[in-house]
Specification:
The protein has four helices and six strands. It has a six-stranded mixed sheet with strand order 1-6-5-4-2-3. The protein starts with a helix and ends in a 14-residue tail after the last helix. It is an alpha/beta fold.
């Protein structure tokens, strides 16, 4: 009997610890890829635009959110030392989309007495939407993609306008975290 109580306590502690880890985890996962043949530190000027060829999600890709995304990218890139220019060396293009996802969970409820009472397997499904924010950076002179970063995950829409802008800015900052700082002479005259 003591062994069963001890095992039950251990299982409860693992469930509580797992729940806390999930609650504290980041909602969006970020990643990136780049062309290793291009020196990303050579660029000093940029411009921002929505991606040309891809269809945007009607909500995330609305004009309001496009402005938020553009403003957030500009703020983050300028914070990295790049200069906004109408004739830039690189163009940052952004897009968003939403995918329907389904998570399947299996909860096994086996006991030491399963040979007598039988074991159980409870399967449940959970439907959700996964949002993606994608930044593609192109070299202006040949329109070649040189860097791509993205964030994906379950996005809970913020309730206030300020929260939306903060969420978009933080997401763009997370995506661009691995993009290199501009060189020290960014603002020198040409």
């Amino acid at each position: 009997m003591k062994r069963i109580v001890k095992m039950t306590k251990s299982i409860v502690m693992m469930v509580v610890a797992g729940t806390l880890m999930l609650a504290c985890s980041q909602a969006l996962q970020t990643s990136y890829d780049y062309d290793s043949s291009v020196n990303l530190k050579q660029f000093k000027t940029f411009n921002v635009a929505p991606e040309r060829s891809n269809e945007q999600d009607p909500l995330l890709g609305s004009d309001l959110n496009k402005r938020r995304l553009r403003d957030a990218v500009i703020e983050v890139m300028q914070g990295k030392g790049y200069k906004l220019d109408q004739n830039p060396e690189i163009v940052v293009r952004f897009m968003t989309d939403v995918k329907e996802r389904q998570q399947v969970r299996s909860n096994n409820s086996y006991s030491p007495y399963m040979w007598w009472y039988g074991g159980g397997n409870n399967i449940s499904t959970y439907n959700y939407q996964e949002s993606r924010f994608i930044l593609n950076i192109y070299q202006k002179n040949n329109d070649k993609m040189i860097w791509q970063g993205w964030a994906s995950g379950k996005v809970k829409p913020p309730t206030k306008k300020d929260d939306r802008e903060t969420m978009v800015k933080n997401t763009m900052a997370d995506i661009l975290r691995t993009f290199p700082q501009a060189t020290a002479d960014t603002y020198s005259s040409k």
